[in-house]
């Protein structure tokens, strides 16, 4: 359990570092934004796919 918490903490710190360095997480190609009048709809499809792949790889590595 302790090892898992350390790894999750490092992943969160790494993502925070990448965002602070300018990685446009949340504005990737494939993220849809629809603006009409006073309404804005944001659907982060590209970001969701990226996060899903990264989490799948992380959990696969932790399982071994």
Q: Would you kindly provide a written description of the structure presented here, covering whatever features stand out?
A:
It is built from two helices and two strands, in the order αββα. The protein has helices at residues 2-20, 45-63, and strands at residues 31-36, 39-44. Strands 1-2 form a two-stranded antiparallel ribbon. The longest helix is centred in the first third of the chain and has 19 residues, at 2-20. The model has no long low-confidence stretch (mean pLDDT 85).
Order of strands across the main sheet: 1-2
How would the global form be characterised?
elongated
Biggest β-sheet: count, sense, barrel?
2 strands, antiparallel
End-to-end distance, in Å? 14 Å
Order of helices and strands: HEEH
- Relative strand content: 15-25%
Counted by DSSP, the helix tally is: 2
Share of residues in helices: 55-70%
**Kindly state the mean pLDDT as a whole number?**
85
The total count of strands amounts to 2
Features:
64 residues; alpha+beta; two-stranded antiparallel ribbon; 19% strand
Sum this structure up briefly.
This protein is α+β, with helices and mostly antiparallel strands and 64 residues long. It is built from 2 helices and 2 strands, in the order αββα.
């Amino acid at each position: 359990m302790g090892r898992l918490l350390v790894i999750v903490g490092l992943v969160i710190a790494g993502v925070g570092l990448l965002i602070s360095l300018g990685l446009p997480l949340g504005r990737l190609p494939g993220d849809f934004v629809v603006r009409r009048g006073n309404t804005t709809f944001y659907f982060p499809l590209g970001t969701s796919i990226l996060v899903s792949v990264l989490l799948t790889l992380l959990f696969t590595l932790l399982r071994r």
